[in-house]
Specification:
Elements lengths: L3 H15 L3 E2 L1 E3 L4 H4 L4 E3 L1 H10 L5 E3 L4 H10 L5 E3 L15 H15 L3 E6 L4 H9 L3 E3 L4 H11 L2 E5 L2 H10 L7 E5 L4 E3 L9 E4 L11 H10 L4 E4 L5 H6 L2 E2 L2 H9 L6 E5 L2 H10 L4 E4 L15 H12 L6 E2 L3 H15 L3
Parallel strand pairs: 1-4, 2-3, 4-5, 6-7, 6-8, 8-11, 9-11, 12-13, 12-14, 14-15
Antiparallel strand pairs: 5-16, 9-10
Helix pairs in contact: 1-13, 3-4, 4-14, 6-14
This protein binds 1,3-dihydroxyacetonephosphate and iron/sulfur cluster.
Keywords: 4Fe-4S, Cytoplasm, Iron, Iron-sulfur, Metal-binding, Pyridine nucleotide biosynthesis, Transferase
Protein name: Quinolinate synthase
EC number: 2.5.1.72
Length: 349
Amino acid sequence: KMTTAELEGKVLTIKRKLGSKLFIPCHHYQKDEVVQFADATGDSLKLAQLSEENKEAEHIVFCGVHFMAETADILTKENQKVHLPDMRAGCSMADMADMHQTERAWEKLEKIFGETILPLTYVNSTAAIKSFVGQHGGATVTSSNAEKMLKWAFEQKPRILFLPDQHLGRNTAYDLGIGLDEMAVWNPINDELEYDGPVEKIKVILWKGHCSVHENFNVKNIEDVRSNYPEMKIIVHPECTREVVALSDMAGSTNYIIEAIKHAEKGSSWAIGTEMNLVNRIIQQHPDKHIISLNPHMCPCLTMNRIDLPHLAWCLESIDQGESNNIIDVDKKDAQFAKLALEKMLARV
Ligand code: 13P
Ligand code: SF4
């Protein structure tokens, strides 16, 4: 078993050796032991943009989760290889919408709504789902452009199917002035539309998926902060429920949260509702501010955390030896249509 120092030494040596042939993008939720070696850090949008722009690196070692690495593979050139240091780094939300469920849903929804519906998918979805959306004229969204993309979608069709995160979908639609009574939920487990009123009234159909990390922030956490620290501002990710976002002071993507705290007044105090590694990093970077996690039982994303220093070192070692087993290679047909959906988004941000 190698020590931390040996593993770090290995990563540094291979990084130096490969130079600009190697690119290591890192999502903000990654562990510090990995982030220290990042060539770039970012939210989902920035990491997608960087993948598209990078023409130089032969090997992109993606420190994030599977759907992000797939996006990088789709947006990079044929001769660029994308590696995921641990192939088990999935995303429970992305897994909540599979192709069979989506095809069944679409068939039923088309029966109800005919041609009046357009699919949109959060980038936190498989390449196959992005491809489905691309084939049906839709686009992807991230947490930092969801509002812009939903507006665009309503210029195309009067109704939107939003996959797979009901909370981001609901929070974004609400901000655009759509009433909660104009939003239905599609339940992919029993193939049913959950809605009380007349279907003609529906403007958004929310796929019944969620993030298991952001679901851990609740109204009780907010009430506790409000009573213990009345002056504290609460900032959360829009993957949190509608109730939590409504009771918070601000909501936005990981990048939005980072920027908000960076520009906040010295001495100000904040409760943050997002993944633990990022919250801890923000706390460390701002000793002049009082910052806590909105949920005192810090919430980790277990799959993001699968990427650790040993996996990064092993992945780089295998690349160096020309035998990587961790290559993400999206099916060609899926990649073609998923790219359409991604490009519609990238052209508008
Ligand atoms: P962003 O970094 O785009 O806000 O995404 C958060 C997230 O949950 C990624 O999985
Ligand atoms: Fe998926 Fe949530 Fe983890 Fe992001 S934080 S990768 S949405 S499970």
